[in-house]
Amino acid sequence: MKTINLALCLLLFASPIAAASQFQSLEAIQEAVQSFVQSSLDPAGQYQISSAQIDPRLQLPACTEKLEIFPQSGNIRSGRNTIGVRCPGFNNWTIYSTVVIKSYEAILILTKQLNRNDTISLDHFSIETRDTSTLQAGYLTDPNDIINKQATRFVPVGSVLYRFHYREPTLVKRGERVNIQSGKPGLLITSAGVAMTDGIKGQQISVKNVSSQRVIQATVINSGLVSVYF
Fold first, then answer.
1. Residue pLDDT, tens place only, 195-223
2. Do 11 and 64 sit in the same domain of this protein?
3. Element at 58 (helix H, strand E)
4. Dihedral of the alpha carbons of 22, 28, 33, 35, in degrees to the nearest 10
5. Which residue ranges does the record assign to the FlgA N-terminal domain (predicted)?
6. pLDDT for position 230
7. Can you give 160-173 as a three-state secondary structure string?
């Protein structure tokens, strides 16, 4: 009788171990997904990666082959990602999990209110590290992109700065007297003119020559200076 009871006890204790070996480790799946995601990201970046979300009730046949990991969208990006995990071979199965990636970058944050047409200086912003995974494209990371540029709109303090917040400054204004350089390198002639429209650097605008009263197309070079090269 004692022998039978001992055998039953051994069977009861052994069964969970044997059963566990028949199923795929969910922890191993999570580790495989984590490794895949990390290897897909820029090693120079700063990231926070959530653990793969997997239903703990899953009982998948143990995979005897190397797990295949793939992003459903075709690439790994900041934000929410759907990741596929496939077991090839005899016990084949495929499941999908989600991983959330936060990407941190040093970006420009407005510290002084901007009004339309203000000239932007270093005093207007600071550089702060933020999670950019929730930001729209076009946020600024380089101060040189915005210094001495002109604000396109009112922007309140604390705003993330974007490309659409600035434009090249207006160097020539409509009705303003300008110098017109014409000719070719080595033989330049300067004459007086009046700008017919506003203009930024490199833009072609209409200019009236004061002497001839002719309206010509000239390129803005600098404040009060346009050129016509032949």
1. 999 998 889 999 999 989 999 999 999 88
2. yes
3. none
4. -150
5. 29-99
6. 58
7. ECEHHHEECCEEEC
Distance CA 177, CA 19 (A): 89
pLDDT single digits (tens) 21-68: 689 999 999 999 999 999 999 998 999 999 999 999 999 999 999 999
Token representation of residue 60: 């998948």
CATH code, domain carrying 224: 2.30.30.760
**Matching residue, tokens 């032949």:** 230
Say which CATH number the domain at 123 has: 3.90.1210.10
Cα separation, 112 vs 158, whole angstroms: 8
- Regarding whether 191 and 162 lie in a shared domain, the answer is no
Q: What is the pTM of this model?
A: 0.65
Domain count within the chain: 2
8 Å CB contact between 100 and 81: yes
